[in-house]
Design goal:
- The complex is a heterotrimer.
- Chain A is α/β, with parallel strands linked by helices.
- Chain A has 2 domains: 209 residues, 3-Layer(aba) Sandwich (Rossmann fold); 149 residues, Rossmann fold (3-Layer(aba) Sandwich), CATH 3.40.50.2300.
- In chain A, strands 7, 8, 9, 10, 11, 12, 13 and 14 form an 8-stranded mixed β-sheet that branches.
- In chain A, strand 13 and strand 14 form a beta hairpin.
- The termini of chain A are far apart.
- By secondary structure, chain B is mainly alpha-helical.
- Helices cover 75% and strands 3% of the residues of chain B.
- Chain B is built from 11 helices and 2 strands; from the N terminus they run ααααββααααααα.
- A two-stranded antiparallel ribbon of chain B has the order 1-2.
- In chain B, a hairpin with a 2-residue loop joins strand 1 and strand 2.
- By secondary structure, chain C is an all-alpha fold.
- Chain C has one domain: ABC transporter involved in vitamin B12 uptake, BtuC.
- Chain C is 70% helix and 1% strand.
- Chain C has a two-stranded antiparallel sheet with strand order 1-2.
- Classes of the chains: A alpha/beta, B mainly alpha, C mainly alpha.
- The interface between B and C is large, with 46 and 49 residues.
């Protein structure tokens, strides 16, 4: 009994300690997947966000901010509890981060219906871009389908007639294949969905080799992407059948794929070779501070921090004036690393989408090289379903 | 579907089976001899892969990676056994499950602290990075190497257990530990050795898997579940059972994944087949295990004696 | 019955019952959410403990029933059915059918085979729920509002908390009766020596199956509450780690004691909360801590108390190991 009551006491005390309010500063909740196998993306998001905060001396928009870092552990029920804690206990006016779509789906309504601002810097599932959109949510990344649509357009432009699509068998996987098909006019001769936890693709790659398509489109995020790209090379398919991808060869996986990924085509909104002042500064600072090439996830979160910096500055720290703050966020008056940036009616960006090829950069490191921009000022497919103006 | 494709897929199944066998052998030995459930076996596999990747990145030598990783994993296994697990042999299985569950959490987070959350790079040796033409398809040479190495190790294990003195003691220890102890054999040392052997095999599997699978935190769990399926299907405690179980699970899983969606398309409409195919393929081995256990609770190839 | 165990149980329940008061006094409504989650997992662990602690049936797949409960609420709400009674009816009906079928197959085995076959079934349902594209697949299903039970307004967090608390207390009382009933005696008899029970003429399979179904139904109820708390139903509720967590809670609290699972759930989830507050690498502390707790005390928090109380004549439970036959 003693053990237990002490535990409870310790728990309450520790929680109580954190609750001590600090005045005259804005509390911002940062929630992402930080632990476990999926922690890499969340870490990139956090590092880039904190880089802005630290460079500004702990301030955003000239106002001191306190960042409350929370790990949602890729468990929706933990994420909802964190949101309750951030809103009810810490009374944060802003929550940022959110890595995975299923976590986003679990918390989006909960955050926005309490009139707390959600600055999502990764996941962009379709429902929250369409019917479930909210004036309180601003996404600095993309709607999930966008990055697949651009690859579909590219496949069209290249004149590929027969393509095989492959993705893990879960919602995002199906969304990406659907996104690819939206702008692709040729024939998707097969769609292969592999179990989410299946790390080996030998069986599927043999099927692909047998069907010999013009190109293969895949969506394999994180470790799955590392496996897939390597096995694609080992199966002798690299260089024979072009590999088009989304979130498969990116800043988070290239360090583990290295030369195996050379030649892989990837579609997204930003790459480390972008030649605009904001992007150059970001890449330079990030490499100096963390000694690695920033991933797109870092870039998205960096933009989230810049967006907050501009909007908080505009309202002079008075984020309690929700109307004014909402307008300031919507204005998106900051220099994005991607160049053009503006918000659509549903709080998702209208932006260019580019195609990259994995190649060696000037320092001989494996990185992404911009080769085409098939979609300019591109909106997502769901914004018309959103009731907001 | 051609015969060539079918044979290629069978080979793929065999390769998965061999990898599973390396893990299942260690797990089943520890279970059979010490009556100990070690959920942290997958973590040892992960540590083996990380050791190998670390050495590979430092020296760029695939062989050296294995030379270091296998003994290192072995030592780590024996260390964990001596420090913690040795105290749990007399406890019931639940305590063992719980303690080794704690070890899983520890190792996953440990590699994250040391090597970071992202995957670590490792590649196959240059000589094995190409493909071999077979049945009209290019088959990755490295996967051939895995099959060969796995079968070689399996044969070595068989020889050790059935033809050497240590093997005899291991077999004796599995049936009548008290008697072996009474004959003056240091049972505690024997246990540690067996545990080390299992850990070494797991490390070997981790080293082999490094170039095809991504080396990352938590990589041990999915394969641990598969390994448990293997030893339960094959019959707990039996190396023979682990071998056949691994081959059956490997081939059923691969063939199911490869051909079930196509097969279903013959009967169902396209969109339904695309939805049902992967779902059924992913539960196939669990279905197999449930059926086997329902009919033969002791598994397909149970230990004959004891 | 003045055993330390009983006293500790009363204190623990008293503290848990006072959480909304604490939350109100310190203006920290968040504690209600946190402890509501703890209570829900305590209920699930309590359910599992009926077969694990008293019947030596180590089910590694009870998260399956949490998932069924959550999806009963989620799917019905998705189709516009908000009545809590409908949710409850559907959840219990589906749970009963699933548990009877799964239990009937699984109970043909015992020991480690039973552990694995229950895991297999949970994995099958997990993959099935992932492929439910219409209901969000892997992303899960958002629930618009809490179940509507008429005059009990669950939308109010305090009311919701006390509703969960009332269910927990009611289940504790019910289980106390079950464990001491003829049914419970037979169950415990099966744990120590099933063959003898069968020889005495008891249809042990029927008893064990009944216990399995009751235990599953409790988890279904917990799953419905979890869906209501998070307003979300997701396949991740059914992951094998979730089943593992339940076992950790029971063993940590002391299996085969009634209040043990409640203590275990409270202890584990609070520990996670506190450690996660300290460091992002909290698992590197929690892991070895679990190992140490297992090594030092093989009876869990309440097992120790039960041992103390046994001299006082309250030895209602005998925790600790009897799965030697599991080989």
């Amino acid at each position: 009994m003693r053990i237990r009551t002490t535990l409870i006491a310790a728990g309450l005390a520790a929680a109580g300690l954190l609750a001590a309010p600090a005045c005259a500063q804005i509390k911002i909740g940062f929630m992402a997947e930080l632990s476990g196998p999926q922690g890499a993306l969340g870490q990139d998001q956090y590092d880039a966000f904190m880089m802005v905060v630290e460079a500004n001396g702990g301030k955003l928009g000239g106002v001191p901010v306190q960042i409350l870092k929370e790990d949602s552990q890729l468990k929706p029920e933990v994420a909802t509890q964190i949101v309750d804690k951030l809103i009810e206990k810490e009374r944060v006016p802003i929550i940022t981060g959110v890595t995975f779509s299923n976590v986003m789906m679990a918390v989006h309504k909960k955050i926005t219906e309490k009139e707390v601002f959600l600055i999502g810097s990764n996941a962009g599932p379709a429902p929250i871009a369409g019917a479930q959109c909210s004036a309180y949510s601003f996404i600095t990344s993309w709607q999930n389908d966008n990055q697949a649509e651009v690859v579909g357009k590219y496949a069209n432009d290249k004149g590929y007639k027969k393509v095989i699509g492959m993705a893990p068998n879960y919602q995002a996987g199906k969304d990406f294949i659907a996104g690819f098909k939206r702008l692709y006019k040729g024939e998707v001769i097969d769609e292969i969905y592999t179990p989410l936890n299946q790390p080996d693709f030998s069986a599927e790659l043999a099927q692909v080799a047998a069907k010999n398509p013009d190109a293969v489109y895949v969506f394999y995020p994180g470790g799955l992407g590392v496996n897939f790209v390597r096995q694609y090379k080992q199966a002798g398919l690299a260089g024979k059948i072009p590999l088009l991808s989304t979130s498969t060869a990116d800043g988070s996986t290239l360090p583990a794929q290295k030369d195996d990924a050379l030649g892989v085509i990837s579609g997204t909104f930003w790459g480390p070779d972008f030649n605009n002042p904001a992007s150059r500064k970001f890449v330079e600072d990030y490499e100096k501070k963390y000694n690695r090439i920033p991933s797109q996830y870092a870039a998205q979160s960096y933009d989230a921090a810049l967006l907050l910096d501009s909007a908080i500055g505009k309202v002079k720290g008075n984020v309690a004036d929700k109307k004014a703050f909402m307008a300031a966020l919507k204005a998106a008056d900051f220099k994005s690393v991607r160049g053009n940036f503006k918000f659509n009616n549903n709080g998702f960006p209208i932006q260019d989408q580019h195609i990259f090829e994995v190649a060696k950069d000037a320092k001989g490191r494996v990185s992404l090289k911009t080769i085409a921009t098939p979609l300019k000022d591109h909106s997502d497919a769901y914004h018309a379903q959103c009731a907001l103006k | 579907m051609t015969l060539g494709l079918f044979l290629t897929q069978t080979l793929n199944g065999l390769q998965l089976g061999v990898l599973l066998f390396l893990l299942a052998a260690g797990l089943t030995l520890v279970f059979g001899i010490m009556n100990f459930v070690n959920l942290a076996h997958g973590s040892l596999y992960m540590m083996g892969a990380y050791f190998a990747a670390a050495v590979f990145n430092a020296t760029n030598s695939f062989v050296l990676a294995g030379v270091v990783a296998v003994p290192a994993t072995m030592l780590l296994g024996m260390l964990v056994e001596r420090v913690a697990l040795i105290r749990l042999y007399q406890r019931d299985h639940l305590d063992q499950v719980l303690a080794t569950f704690g070890l899983i959490l520890f190792f996953n987070e440990l590699v994250r602290i040391i090597w970071g959350p992202a995957s670590v790079y490792m590649n196959a040796p240059e000589a094995l990075s190409g493909t071999v033409m077979l049945f009209g398809f290019g088959y990755p040479a490295y996967r051939f190497a895995i099959i060969a190495a796995g079968l070689f190790v399996g044969a070595g294990l068989y020889w050790m257990i059935h033809k050497t003195r240590v093997g005899m003691l291991i077999r004796a220890g599995a049936t009548k530990p008290e008697m072996v102890a009474a004959l003056g054999v240091n049972i505690s040392l024997l246990n540690t050795l067996v545990f080390g052997l299992g850990a070494g095999l797991a490390g070997f599997a981790g080293w082999m898997a490094g170039p095809i699978l991504s080396v990352q935190p938590g990589m041990g769990e999915p394969i641990l579940i598969l390994t448990l399926v293997v030893i339960v299907t094959g019959g707990i405690g039996s190396i023979r059972g682990a071998f056949y179980g691994a081959m059956i699970v490997g081939i059923v899983d691969t063939i199911g994944r490869a051909f079930l969606p196509t097969l279903l398309r013959e009967f169902l409409e396209r969109s339904l087949a695309q939805a049902a195919g992967p779902a059924i393929a992913s539960i196939l081995i669990y279905l197999l295990m449930a059926v086997v256990l329902a009919v033969r609770p002791q598994g397909l190839f149970p230990v004959k004696h004891g | 019955m003045r055993s330390p165990q009983l006293w500790a149980a009363a204190v623990l329940l008293g503290l848990l019952g006072l959480v909304p008061v604490y939350a109100a006094v310190f203006e920290q409504p968040f504690y209600i959410t946190l402890f509501a989650r703890i209570l829900i997992f305590a209920i699930a662990a309590l359910g599992l403990n009926l077969i694990l602690g008293y019947g030596a049936m180590v089910s590694f797949g009870h998260a399956l029933y949490i998932g069924i409960g959550a999806y009963a609420v989620g799917i019905l709400s998705f189709h516009g059915v908000t009545s809590g009674w409908a949710h409850l009816g559907a959840g219990l009906a589906v749970g009963a059918v699933a548990a009877t079928v799964v239990g009937w197959v699984c109970l043909r085995t015992s020991g480690i085979a039973f552990i694995m076959i229950t895991l297999a079934f949970a994995q099958m349902f997990y993959f099935l729920s992932v492929s439910l594209k219409q209901y969000g697949g892997d992303d899960g299903l958002t629930i618009a509002a809490r179940s509507d039970f008429g005059w009990v307004n669950l939308a109010n967090n305090t009311v919701f908390y006390y509703a969960i608390f009332a269910v927990l207390v009611a289940l504790l009382l019910l289980f106390r009766r079950i464990v001491d009933s003829r049914f419970g005696m037979v169950l415990r008899g099966c744990k120590s020596n099933e063959r003898r029970m069968a020889a005495l003429g008891f249809p042990t399979m029927r008893y064990k199956l009944a216990a399995y179904v009751i235990s599953a139904q409790v988890c279904v109820v917990a799953g419905m509450m979890l869906a209501n708390l998070t307003k979300f139903a997701s396949p991740s509720f059914m992951q094998w780690q979730a089943s593992g967590d339940l076992i950790v809670m029971i063993v940590l609290g002391g299996m085969g004691t009634l209040i043990g699972p409640v203590a275990g759930a409270t202890g584990l989830l609070l520990l996670e909360e506190v450690l996660a507050g300290w460091t992002q690498h909290w698992m590197v502390i929690l892991g070895p801590l679990i190992v140490v707790i297992v090594i030092v005390s093989n009876r869990g928090i309440f097992g120790v108390l039960a041992a103390l109380g046994r001299t006082g004549g309250a030895g209602r439970a005998r925790p600790g190991g009897t799965s030697g036959e599991a080989r």
